[in-house]
Amino acid sequence: MSLPSLGINQERWNRLLLKSYWVVFVLSIIVECLYLLVTDLPAEQFVSLYIVRPTIIMAFIVLLAECGVRYLPKHHDYVLISSATLLTVTVTAIHSSLEYLLFLLFFPIMISIFYFQYKKLLYAMLNTIIALICLYLADAEIRSNIPFIGLVSMLVIIIVYSGISLGILARGREVLKHLRTSYESNQELLVRTILMDKLAKTDALTDTYNHMAYHEFKDHLVEQANNGRISLHLAILDIDNFKKVNDTYGHKAGDKVLKIVASIIQSKTGSNDIVARYGGEEFAVLIAEKSFQEVYDLVEEIRKSIAITQHDAIEGLNVTVSIGLNTYMPGMGREALFQGADAALYEAKHSGKNRTMLAASMRSPRSDSVV
């Protein structure tokens, strides 16, 4: 597994950048209006040159950026960097007498840092350098205010600033790589922990839960049942005459029978039911969120399915199971739940086997069930 990509939430960040462009647009209008209060130019001339004209141009640029992000999603980053360059060029060109505004050309470089990619930063740096040179060559007022050595100095400053930005990106990517490595290591450790936990709770032969896992699940489910959140039932199944199977056909054949019996139980129960190998040939099934009738019908279906299944390991013969069934009542306690089911199983064993018996507290005329 890998650390989530930096592209996550890119659409949201693009929207934030576009909003920042609109903020710059509004702020430029506000600043121009403030300058209107102190300018020596006639109001009509100032409004035409420094408010209406830049407002129209900047609005057009931001609207182009909106369209570019929407209709050119693969190139949204370059669209936004280019738009930032055009905005700064517009402001700088209109106010060419204010040479300090040339430093606004750093704006595209700052925007490119959001993308955390070297090529975007280099693209922004190239845009800034080209924009500065074009402004210098095209605008006589800028040339008169800034000597050639001043232009060279600004280019050096842009390159140095871009170099610092590259260093920041390099450090950030180094940190990201470390985080990615740590993340993947933690994920691998988590997977190993889950697998080890599963192995610790799984019976190797039957692939059901083991005795330890059964008790953990039982304690948790009993707590839920005590709070009245769920209904809980326990069925204990024991393979009849299993010692005879082992003595006659060997333990290897007995293991194969155990696997098949376990697979039948698992196939009949639901994903929320807990099937555990409790002892040698004994299985415990914890069933929640079902009515007594549904549970009774389920264990009967399991018993009958096992009884009609032939086993090649024992020359095509069948085995049967006896079942003890108990339903949890609030306040009963986990030991009483098990003891009731175990006593019912004992009675089933001594009443002819291959049958389902209910715990004494649940006894009804139908408590004896055989094929």
Record keyword descriptors for this entry.
371 residues, alpha+beta, Alpha-Beta Plaits, 6-stranded mixed beta sheet, 12 helices, rod-shaped, disordered N terminus, GGDEF_dom, Diguanylate_Cyclase
Helices and strands, with pairings:
Blueprint: H1 10-36, H2 43-71, H3 76-94, H4 107-113, H5 118-138, H6 140-145, H7 148-201, H8 211-226, E1 232-239, H9 242-249, H10 251-268, E2 274-277, E3 282-288, H11 292-307, E4 310-311, E5 317-318, E6 321-327, H12 334-349, E7 355-358, E8 369-370
Parallel strand pairs: 6-7
Antiparallel strand pairs: 1-3, 1-6, 2-3, 4-5, 7-8
Helix pairs in contact: 1-2, 1-3, 2-3, 3-4, 3-5, 4-5, 5-7, 9-10, 10-11
Domain GGDEF: 230-361
Transmembrane segments: 21-38, 50-71, 78-94, 100-116, 121-138, 144-170
GO molecular function: diguanylate cyclase activity
Overall description:
With 371 residues, this protein is α+β, with helices and mostly antiparallel strands. It has helices spanning 10-36, 43-71, 76-94, 107-113, 118-138, 140-145, 148-201, 211-226, 242-249, 251-268, 292-307, 334-349, and strands at residues 232-239, 274-277, 282-288, 310-311, 317-318, 321-327, 355-358, 369-370. The strands form two sheets. It has a six-stranded mixed beta sheet with strand order 2-3-1-6-7-8, with helices on both faces. It has a two-stranded antiparallel ribbon with strand order 4-5. Helix 12 links the parallel strand 6 and strand 7. The chain starts with 9 loop residues before the first helix and ends with a strand.
Structural class: alpha+beta
Helix content: 55-70%
The stretches of 5 or more residues where confidence is low (pLDDT under 50) are 1-5
What is the strand arrangement across the widest sheet?
A: 2-3-1-6-7-8
Please describe the biggest sheet, giving its number of strands, its sense, and whether it closes into a barrel: 6 strands, mixed
What is the arithmetic mean of pLDDT? 87
Amount of beta strand: 5-15%
Tell me the domain tally. 2
- Overall shape: rod-shaped
| Number of helical stretches of at least 4 residues | 12
The Rg value, from CA coordinates, equals 39 Å
Quaternary: single chain
Distance between termini? 52 Å
H/E element sequence? HHHHHHHHEHHEEHEEEHEE
Topology, number of strands: 8
Protein name: Diguanylate cyclase (GGDEF)-like protein
GO cellular component, one term: plasma membrane
Organism: Cohnella lupini
Pfam family, one: GGDEF
